[in-house]
Amino acid sequence: MKTRIIQNEPEEPANGAQTIDATVGEPKHSRNLAARMGRWSASHKKTAILGWLAFIAVAFMLGNAVGTKQLDPNKAGTGESGHVDSVLRDEFKQAQVDQILIQSTTKTIDDPAFRAAIADVVRTVGGMQQVKKVESPFAPGNMERISHDRHTALVALELRTTDLKQATKLDKPVEKAIIAANARHPGIAIEEFGVNVETQLDRAVVNDFKKAGLFSLPVTLIVLVVAFGALVAAGLPLLLALTAVFATMGLLALPSHLIPLDKDVSVIVLLIGLAVGVDYSLFYLKREREERAAGRSERAALEAAAATSGRSVLVSGLTVMVAMAGMLFTGDQTFMGFGVATMIVVAIAVLGSLTVLPATLAALGDKVERLRIPFLQKRSRSVTSGRVWSAILDRVLRRPLVSAVLAGGLLLALAAPALHMHIAEPGIKTFPQNLSSIKTYNKLQKAFPGEANSSQVLVKTDNAHSAAVTTAISDLKRQAIATGQFSTPTHVDYSDDGTIAVVSLSMQGDGVDDKALAALQTLRHTIIPATVGSLDGADVGVTGNTAGQKDANSQMKHAAPFVFAFVLTLAFLLMLVTFRSVVVAIKAVLLNLLSVAAAYGALVLVFQDGWGKGLLGFVPPGGIISWLPIFLFVILFGLSMDYHVFILSRVREAFDRGMSTEDAVAHGIKTTAGVVTSAALVMFGVGLAIAVLVDATIVRAVLLPATMKLLGDWNWYLPKWLEWLPQLSHGDSHEPTATETPVVLPQAIPQPADG
């Protein structure tokens, strides 16, 4: 639709309002896909709504029928450790093992009561059907399982499974038996460390994710209620987002057989699905309500929203999917699965926003305003723009250079700590210290330094029992212990076919600290080449916690430039095509990079330097976890571009209608600031919360309008050699028809309350 600014009318509306033409239709051959989809859905309400429900049901049933393939942790690694894990998973079915710590502060293993406790444990767990093998510290060759001070002993057991998931089930009765044994021997601690670590940590992580998901739902609803002032209008975006999530969880079964999915992918889908689903519906629904408030009919308001906000949703969705696709370049299977999952949920959210949402709005009409909350309804229908945003923007546009310098300087200052970012994996010290398994680990590490953190060396040959291999393994253990970076106990396991030997070496450090990394470096580059690495035709490598984390870090560092280049390049091209402006495209990329950099700086201050650790209640790991920079980049960049497209589309729409650049900027940002703020409040987490807060305030409300005011009409610069780019309408304009009716459009279009 085309909107004409009517000038030189005999009477001008009060309060500086502009008179525009409100139309009720689009041309038959409109190139605006979102407008066509919205118009069709509004004209076929029942088909669109029932079709959407059928799509959700089919997707969910398809997922149940096909089944989702989960990522095998032993197949998820990268580099040398990933290769070793894969070989061991396929060719050496190692039984899942547990360590039982038996310790007394007053008795030694020479005390009869202590020896009785050890015998009780060996007898009890050894007779359980879940246990394949038990090793007593008193057995020949196991003296390394007795601590130097003789106050601690270790009983090792193997469960009757090689699968970690199955081991967690088998371990439950074993854990109960150990607890019972502990109760039978007062004054002697009998505790388990092994499979229960994974169980307890997984349970803690899942509980945290559930809390985040459950917390986000009511908060999202509250934000929407404040934004619309009516329960029906507030419920629509949330309902659409949740249906998109349900459909995604079903459809993910199909790509999971090509790219297996991490067990926590459902949480990522929920959080991203809520964010984009609510955002897109919010943008669309708010514009439809604004058009109705401006005097358009229900159908005309809906078509205007489809042609404007609908188109913004389409472009935003493509931009977010491009950002999420960056995860496919990491080479990490977990990230690749996250990338596929988030792209699918964004695509479904976009589809729903362009089809079932306009159909539902057409069916409801003004009933969407039902169940009003009087006070909030009055605020959301205010005829004046948000006082806070108007005041800020007016001052920014009066002094754009000062505003740009101050805002840019603040963001650069916040981003500065990112220059000293240190990549580090969280060690045991950063895990919840109230978990029984972690308490046992601390005792174990003190009594047997390195036992709880060991490296496994793979030696695969034609005959692992040959004299040459046996000698090389003995040299490996001897040289490792001689460095002082490794210690006893050590042990060697052989595959049933005798082709694989796995040497376990206790190492210094807690797994990811400097001591552990230095020990790994020595093992890989000095000890192994001089021992087992010299065997002809042998497949040799190191795995373990330290090796896995080191290889994952290296993979992320290698992938980062490719991820950044892919996302930035495609985002630039999308902005260029959408707005036909080189300046807008470059500035969009730079502003979003500045937001990401500020978020990185905040992360360093909090998680590396420990600012606010007392308030937030965590132990700083001393660095940033390796996957977080890339993950935060793709998520934040995508969501930031989401807001950027929405705001710029409104600015360009006003400019195309005849406003000056300055007036268009003021109009576009004032009419979208409240909506963007409401959308931003849906996001949670320290990194995202800080980033979105900065993005929705300093960047969008200060830096963006200030730079646009300074550049003036240069904002829309396009070189002549790019004039072939398609002309895309940013408004609901079309050639006027006889059915056009002038209506008054206030300069201050209603928006969510901002206080």
CATH topology of the largest domain: Multidrug efflux transporter AcrB transmembrane fold
The count of β-strands is 10
The total tally of domains equals 3
Radius of gyration, rounded?
31 Å
| Count of separate DSSP helical elements | 24
Instruction: For the largest sheet, list the strands in their spatial order.
Output: 3-4-2-5
CATH homologous superfamily annotation of the largest domain:
Multidrug efflux transporter AcrB transmembrane domain
CATH architecture of the largest domain: Up-down Bundle
Mean of residue pLDDT?
80
Shape: elongated
Give me the secondary-structure category. Answer: alpha+beta
Helix content: 55-70%
Written overview of the protein:
- With 755 residues, this protein is an alpha+beta fold.
- Helices cover 59% and strands 9% of the residues.
- The chain is built from 24 helices and ten strands.
- A four-stranded antiparallel β-sheet has the order 3-4-2-5, sandwiched between helices. A four-stranded antiparallel β-sheet has the order 7-8-6-9. The protein has a two-stranded antiparallel ribbon with strand order 1-10.
- A hairpin with a 5-residue loop joins β7 (486-494) and β8 (500-507).
- α20 packs antiparallel against α24.
- The radius of gyration is 31 Å and the shape is elongated.
- Mean pLDDT is 80; it is low at 1-29, 380-385 and 733-755.
